[in-house]
Specification:
Elements (H helix, E strand, L loop, with lengths): L10 H9 L16 E5 L4 E4 L1 E5 L2 E6 L2 E6 L3 E6 L16 H11 L3 H12 L19 H6 L8 H18 L4 H10 L1 H7 L6 H14 L3 H8 L2 H6 L10
């Protein structure tokens, strides 16, 4: 094989070598115009143009450069189509590229991430709340640390950490969006304590503000939240207390 042919290999050409390293892959025949996603064991997804096995290392080729990681860090390669239409939604908001990247990484609707940012900080990357929540998605210091966000004022890190946290909450509450948003605002311990949305006016107002943009997109709501879309879009019970 000519040396130039070894620089970037398509997934189907080296699947056997990577499988020999004990990795699992979801591979389909690659089309020249499409890219793939490298899914890391940490849960992060990287948009890649190609990759190559280097023994106990794997080189991932991406737009603007490449990165080499330990083979054990790579869980699988997924075709771009696995993310469906949510990865193709165009946003006309600040930090659209970072939002799209996180939406693809955590399989979230980018409009949801954008709506959370709008309510949390109005797209102010330097925002600091009275409770010390930081940055675009208003991460508390403890949450930022848990999400491996070193600099909460860095837009890319903050959006990635906030999206990762939101994804964890959606998974925790069976993809019930209202409960996930309630937990994002008031904390999952309060949602668990009240066995539902806490009776705080701030939390109820927060959920309504986030959902207001999504209620105008019922197709997206149903596509990404299934049969719970109608429940998530319904009116919330009136709050009976304050935080």
């Amino acid at each position: 094989m000519p040396a130039g042919d070894r620089s970037v290999r398509r997934p189907q050409a080296i699947a056997a070598r990577l499988a020999g390293a004990g990795l699992l892959f979801a591979l389909i025949a690659a089309l020249p115009a499409k890219a793939d996603y490298a899914v890391l064991r940490s849960g992060q997804r990287l948009h890649i143009a190609g990759w190559e096995s280097l023994g106990d290392k794997v080189r991932l080729d991406m737009k603007g450069g490449s990165v080499t990681i330990d083979a054990t860090e790579l869980a699988r390669i997924e075709p771009e189509d696995v993310f469906g239409e949510s990865a193709k939604v165009e946003l006309d908001v600040p930090y659209a590229d970072q939002i799209q990247n996180s939406a693809q990484t955590y399989q979230l609707d980018p409009a949801l991430i954008a709506s959370v940012i709008a309510v949390e900080s109005n797209f102010n990357s330097r925002a600091v709340s009275s409770k010390s929540a930081l940055g675009l998605m208003q991460l508390l210091p403890g949450t930022a640390a848990q999400m491996a966000v070193r600099n909460p004022f860095d837009p890319a890190q903050n959006i990635d950490g906030g999206s990762r946290y939101l994804k964890q909450l959606l998974d925790r509450y069976g993809r019930n969006l209202t409960l996930a948003l309630a937990a994002y605002n008031a904390g999952p311990h309060r949602v668990d304590f009240y066995r539902g949305i806490p009776p705080f006016a701030e939390t109820h107002s927060y959920i309504d503000k986030v959902l207001v943009n999504l209620r105008s997109q019922p197709t997206l709501m149903k596509q990404f939240f299934g049969d719970s879309a109608a429940q998530n879009a319904s009116l919330l019970p009136a709050p009976t207390g304050t935080r």
